[in-house]
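hiii, so i know i said id send this last week but things got crazy w the move. better late than never?? heres the sequnce for the chain we talked about at the cafe, plus the structure i predicted for it. fair warning i was half asleep when i ran it
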Amino acid sequence: MEQKESRRVTMTKMLLKTALIELMQEKPFPQITIKELCERADLNRTTFYLHYADQTAVLREIETEATQKTIEYMKHASPDAGTVELIERFLHYVKDNPMLFRTLLLSGERASFKPEFIANTLSEIRANLPHYGDELHEKYVLIFLMEGSAHIITEWLRSDFDLPASEVARTIYALCDSARDISL
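okay and structure toks below
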């Protein structure tokens, strides 16, 4: 049975994660030391090592939580929500957490995060997507659609949310929907 963390542990971890995200805005991840991280969080190294082995463990936990929270956020959509609404909900979540998503999706510190994150998130709306031919062809079409969607979202982040989330959601959906017209 999973034991719930105490408020103190939750707060300590939140301080360390926030400090890491802030530091990643200033310098590359490999250059961030545990000493800097602890100073920014106003915690001592002993406290750090009670919860994490190294900076990478903090970053992995941030990534895992971002993915889990995104999926949870999207699950709170109404049961009859369409794909556009689900995409829009996700985009609002990204917009509500810009520092987190700029760090995770744009920094390139862990190149594997972006495709994993997009795949996990889009798997939640997979049931609402049309089918694109046989299983083998569909795999390639979905890879194309997921990567294209990821690039649209990262450009939207880079452009400081220059379009409303609803327009970006409709664009992503329209592009994905147009792939149905491909004859395989």
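btw DSSP finds nine helices and no strands in the chain. thought thatd interest u
miss u guys!!
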